[in-house]
Specification:
three-stranded mixed sheet, 232 residues, 12 strands, 3 domains, 33% helix
């Protein structure tokens, strides 16, 4: 029986390597080189759930072994299981194209081109709209129902993807017996948010990037799309 209190980051990174091997064999004929799979903070400076380095950045001192880095953002590791699998497979598509010498992005890696779109569609991703985002191109693909079903049947320990980097204020509030509202209030004290309210999700209607705030009345402008963020 699974004991949540015995769960370690080592368990999760080990399972991520297992997921990589399953996806490599299933979707890429096993041709992808094994990367250094890491869980690192995104530093609260970007909302990316993960990334893949464009060149090998890990390896031995003499260069005998060189590895790309495939990272999952620590802040999002306890999201829906399929969100995490979506991120892993998305970054593996980039690794596949890097390995094959195919350029699937431009504009310093921010714009995902038609080569990226073609590959993710082959793997069972779907797009809400059949048009590229003006800033990020075809990046906003999501796992379709059939892809989720296929992944759901794989021997993956789904139950272990339940911890993430929340920060000191969050756990301090929990230790003091606070509920959701109290935790939000505690966080707002240190971060300048209004107290006594749950977080609100704001999304750019054009590119889909989102942020959360504890303030109810905000006028947030997306610097990439020049569109006002909307609440969900």
């Amino acid at each position: 029986m699974f004991d949540i209190k015995s769960l370690t980051l080592s368990d999760i990174t080990t399972e991520l390597h297992h997921v990589f091997e399953l996806f490599n064999k299933t979707y890429f004929d096993g041709v992808l080189p094994t990367p250094a799979i890491t869980i690192q903070s995104n530093g609260h400076q970007r909302l990316s759930m993960g990334w893949c380095s464009v060149v090998p950045v890990w390896g031995t001192q003499d260069g005998t072994l060189q590895m790309y880095e495939l990272n999952l953002s620590a802040e999002f590791m306890d999201q829906d299981f399929y969100e995490t699998m979506d991120t892993v497979l998305h970054e593996m598509v980039h690794l596949y194209h890097l390995h094959a010498g195919i350029q699937d992005t431009s504009r310093k890696g921010t714009y995902h081109n038609k080569r990226f779109k073609q590959k993710v569609l082959e793997l069972g991703f779907e797009y809400k709209e059949d048009k590229p985002d003006p800033k990020h191109g075809w990046t906003y693909a999501r796992l379709g129902d059939e892809a989720k079903r296929k992944i759901g049947e794989m021997p993956i320990r789904k139950e272990i993807f339940v911890i993430a980097r929340h920060g000191y204020s969050y756990f301090k509030a929990l230790a003091e017996g606070g509920g959701t509202d109290e935790i939000a209030s505690s966080s707002s004290t240190n971060m300048g948010y209004e107290s006594g309210s749950k977080s609100i999700k704001w999304t750019c209607p054009s590119c889909g990037i989102s942020v959360r705030s504890y303030k109810k009345d905000l006028n947030i402008l997306c610097g990439d799309c020049n569109q006002n963020f909307e609440t969900e």
